[in-house]
Amino acid sequence: MTANLTYPDIVNYAVPGFIVAILIELLWIKWQGRGGRYETQDALTSLLMGAGNVASGILLGFIAWGFFTWIWQFRLFDLGTSIWIVGICFVLDDLRYYWVHRFGHRVRWVWASHVNHHSSQHYNLTTALRQTWTGTFTMMMIVRAPLLLLGFHPAMLLFVGGLNLIYQFWIHTEAIDKLPRWVEAIMNTPSHHRVHHGRNAQYLDANYAGVFIIWDRMFGTFVPEMDDEKVEYGLVQNLGTFNPLRVAFHEWIGLFRDVFRPGLTLKHRLLYAVAPPGWSHDGSRDTSETIKAKHLDRHPEHRGQPGL
Amino acid sequence: MPLSILLPLVVFGIAGIVLLIRLMRPTPPLVFTDEDHARTIWDHRNHDALSKEIILNSAKTHALIETASGPGLLWSFGVDPVTRLLDHPFDLKDIKTGLRIVTHDFTAPNIDIPLPEATSRNRWTAILERPRLEGPL
Which residues does chain B have within 8 Å of residue A239's beta carbon, measured at their own beta carbons? Predict the structure, then answer.
């Protein structure tokens, strides 16, 4: 009954909205003298990364689509297309997003793709568009398999995934402070997502949510934005380039250099690809765990705070 | 959405936003007001290699940091700072405006340091070449 199901490509339709919202945020910052920072080259890099993401979707999207339609033939049920099913699909897909995003920070192979989204030292609406060009190669499409096997149609999954992405656009801003308590309790908000983009020891590996922050609260990764810990955006070691090609591929190059360096065991090579970012066979680099531990050595009074 | 609409939308959208940011210049480029300013930024980002001595260039856009682990560089990258501990092999080149550090680091390949005065250039060169001649400081 759902063989020829199609949904509009809503992310593309949202592009004019993205442009207008960026212009509004920019004018707001200029007018108010607060609420974020913009820098020409940084914003250009983010926008080009966004354009490249759309292009890579057009060029490589057939791989994920082929995988989804192949899995779909083994479905246990066909759940149909009612509005309730779309709603349930949206919520479950957000749970799927939480785990893919968590893998994106804890598995270097996936981080190599996701890192570019965190590579700006700014946090404004253009940062939201700083998206990966190499997502297909992470194979994280596999995480959608359970939903397909349950009977959610591939087109519906892509549709709700697009809604999820559009939701996350507006939370990339410093222009909005905290929202009413009930919103902050349930939804991912600018405040929660600022924490996620922080390079502060306390904020590393926190708030992976897409739409609903409840997943972080459930799985123990929630950290609130603290008044006395201003978020510093970017990477633990920030990039010294605005070149989109370097932004897109730098971690892949670092990963393969490590995997193929001489004198390592097979286990070490594998761990350079799949262990958390910062792992090294000789312990010479910092992971988020060692960064937090060193922070606590310097600031023992912070022990027990969220994220530490 | 057909490509015939999406493509111009993306191209003109990017161009329009970039032009507007350029015209508005909402945030000025970063300069380090003095050595203490540079030290604060470096030490905050390099707890394992705290600064000992700091030398700023005359434009106050780049700072050479001496640490127990060797030299480091702090520089203004647009409106933000970037730091690198120069603990991997690098090449040093004279360029018209000063010095270029070729890091062999894919994330910061060439760092051009404006050093118009010959005395500054010589001083930076001596410090940057020291570890390779004498080992770590």
Answer: 82, 107-108
